[in-house]
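Students often ask why we bother encoding 3D structure as a string. The short answer is that it lets us treat folding as translation between two languages. Here is a chain of 193 residues written in the first language.
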Amino acid sequence: MGSLKIPNLPRSRTDLFLSFTWLGLQGFGGVLAVVQREMVDRKQWMTLSEFAEEWALAQTLPGPNVVNLSVMFGGRHFGPTGALAAMSGLLLLPGLLMLAIVFGFQAFAHVPWVASALHGMGVTAAGMVMAAGWRFWPSVVRHPLGWPLGLAFAVLSFALAAVLHWPLAAVIGAVGGAACLLTGWRLQAKDKA
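And here it is in the second language, the structure alphabet:
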């Protein structure tokens, strides 16, 4: 008989606050890859599939995706105070650090290597986002739509947003809505079979 894997859970609101503070402090240039690595691989608070589903929901809500994720995750485990603890951890110390960096940058913006360093960080952040996207591939393969159709929806989303410059809400509404309807139809057909 196989053993059932019991997920690790945050121990307290303090654990949430400190964990999300650490996530926020690592998230230079984009926090998706960091949050995925910490919550799925290191803390094992969620599976990769659960993370993909939560991240998709966080993207459909107004506001920054990772803040939405922190509020949903903290709220699920400790109610409103857990949501506040996770969100505060994500924003408080990193926000203060960001203010210090902004004021420091203003003082040294005229130095050429400072501008060059910022451009280099942008390329690195893009690579981190691409790496995080690659990690979602197993979820696409196991998705009820199958990988060819899942990949087609991903490519269509990219084309609408990056090439045709559709607003994010329109891409989520059109492509996400179609993917949800088709997934629901496939799951119902599978249940009937």
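Translate back mentally: The chain has two domains: 8-112+120-137, 143-193. Keep this in mind for the problem set.
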